[in-house]
Amino acid sequence: MRQKVLEVNSVTMQFGGLIAVNDLTLFADQKEIVALIGPNGAGKTTAFNMITGVYKPTSGHIALNKLNITGMRPDRITRLGMARTFQNIRLFKSLPVLDNVVIAQHLRIKSNWLGSTLRLPRYNKENRLMYEHAEHLLEHMGLKDVIHETASSLPYGMQRKLEIARAIATQPVMLLLDEPAAGMNPAESMELTQLIQSVRDEFDLTILLIEHHMDVVMDISDRIYVLDYGNLIAVGTPAEIQANDVVIKAYLGVAEDEA
Amino acid sequence: MMSERTNTRESISKHPPSVKKNVNLYSVVLSALLLIVLYFVLMKIEGSANALVPRIARLCAINIVLALAMNLINGFTGIFSLGQAGFMAVGAYTTALLTIEPARKLSMYIVTPIVKPLETLTLPFGLTLIIGGLIAAGLAFLIGVPCLRLRGDYLAIATLGFSEIIRVFIMNAQSLTNGAQGLKSIPPNATILWTYGVALAVIAFMALFTTSSYGRALKAVREDEIAAESMGVSLFKHKMMSFMISAFLAGVGGGLLAAYNGTIGQDMFRVMQTYNVLMIVVMGGMGSISGSVIAAFVVTIGQEMLRVLDGPINLGFWKTSGIAGMRMVVFSALLLVVIVFFRNGLFGTKELTWSGIVRNIEKLAGRGKRGEVA
Ligand SMILES: Nc1ncnc2c1ncn2[C@@H]1O[C@H](COP(=O)(O)OP(=O)(O)O)[C@@H](O)[C@H]1O
Ligand SMILES: [Mg+2]
């Protein structure tokens, strides 16, 4: 038996009269790539927001490596090994690409503010390691040539990759990607598929992925959860989901119409 | 004209020097040279025949401290705080109460006598600046606990309210602050060396702090709170840190101002005082240390030079025997022009660096040579 890294247990999120996520239960095993799919407004991002602490679930429990993280503040959850990207990119826009990734390592700093300001040897060492790690990560993500550019000046596809690099810099065990291929062309999303698999292997990550590009999802997912109007309507391997009538009706059929 | 504009812009470095492993030797040498030049310029100013000149020069330095204090919280952290005058008042009264000679205190407190230990207590000027700063920081902590959870405009209003509460407290704490009578005979410790010494120390602190890992985290909070928190930055802890350091520096600046003025009263610390500093910060650029420093000079000297506007004016077609506050009207209009043309102030979040200036000079020289050949 592999260890369950993420366990979401009967989680519900209610906004006033709207139930955005209803009684959702899911898990992810170590090094698994699990996809969460469903039409727009199905509640996928809301599920991410509950898992990462942005929203406190109305009811239910969430555990990371068996530790109950329900209702914890986002920064504490990140410290425990959860990292994420955002559907509507949220980079530190006016800062250099390199600094975006360096900032994500601040959570592990041992020096205090005064020691850092005085540039004590311990801080200098920590700071140097942060920059080295950031450069290594950006190289891995194919962003080596743009490290001194301002984050907002990057093309869309690169900004998405930078979000992934920044998330990985927090040294997570669990990575949540919210539509990482959104706005990418087929070639770019193919490349992204490989990149996601390579970071999973390189950094020993468990990945939960929201994605609309079905080729990406079917290609890299070990298992798929399908949400519709906040309800879980199917779970299974890519092959099982593709053959599932309910899913085809609720989602895949619509996607084909759109295409 | 156009190319000149581009070149000035280029001398402003795009990236603050944060990674540079070995600080460039020429930066150190040039900075040392600048300090030496500054020293002689200040000595020259101090010996000036016109007594107003050294006074304005000192006010410039104090305004640098005050502007950087406010820039840390408003510019670097993106928190719209308007509590500055309150923190300044705390520093000003601390320095005043701890430096005025006991005999003078006795004669000043007419309505009620001064509280016990302060009656005879006097401390060295530098120490009183630090104590004033620490009390301001402590107060910032107490205010920050409820207020820093608020967002945007609410926080601005809450801090503004706090600043007024301090002022009202000063007005009524007769036996501590001498109430509405204010305090006189504050020893003139704010010499050119003290003011510029403190200003340089604060500039150095800000340059090092804002480029440290903690400073980067504050910028992340400014850029996007949700993203910063999701990257493990504790919002409350970092906002509180910035708020307290800012209050400390404002307290120190207030202490300098008290010694500079010689007299203080609650009236000095109205909201207008906060706006005055805000004007410098906005003009220089929120999030730029060099911007605040340069704008402190521009605004302080500018306001002094525009003083003529308050006096009688005769433009031929329009005459006035003097309108008090006219210079502030003109000055505000000038600020408006700056904001309209440079939406992010003179510097934005950029900094003036030696490498940027040198690159710029090299460009100019290179272009000159090519011009000769052609
Ligand atoms: N903060 C919020 N307040 C109110 N309603 C929300 C909030 N966040 C999401 N919703 C609603 O919850 C539903 C699910 O949204 P979301 O999780 O973003 O969907 P998805 O990511 O699957 O497209 C939508 O109807 C959306 O309008
Ligand atoms: Mg979504």
Distance between the termini of chain A: 40 Å
Structural class of chain A: alpha/beta
Bound molecules: adenosine-5'-diphosphate, magnesium ion
Molecular shape of chain B: globular
Task: Describe the structure in brief.
The complex is a heterodimer of chains A (259) and B (374). Chain A has 10 helices and 10 strands. Chain A is α/β, with parallel strands linked by helices and 259 residues long.
Describe this structure in words.
Chain A is α/β, with parallel strands linked by helices. Chain A has two domains: 1-81 and 172-259, 3-Layer(aba) Sandwich (Rossmann fold), CATH 3.40.50.300; 92-169, no CATH class. Chain A has ten helices and ten strands. In chain A, β9 and β10 (231-236) form a beta hairpin. In chain A, 44% of the residues are buried. In chain B, a hairpin with a 4-residue loop joins β2 and β3. Chain B is built from 17 helices and four strands. With 374 residues, chain B is an all-alpha fold. Helices cover 70% and strands 2% of the residues of chain B. Mean pLDDT of chain B is 86; it is low at 1-21. A two-stranded antiparallel ribbon of chain B has the order 1-4. Chain B has a domain at 30-276. Chain B is globular, with a radius of gyration of 22 Å. The longest helix of chain B is centred in the middle third of the chain and has 27 residues, at 235-261. In chain B, α4 runs parallel beside α8 (152-172) and α4 packs across α13 (235-261). The interface between A and B is large, with 43 and 29 residues. Adenosine-5'-diphosphate (ADP) is lined by residues 15, 18, 20, 38, 40-46 of chain A.
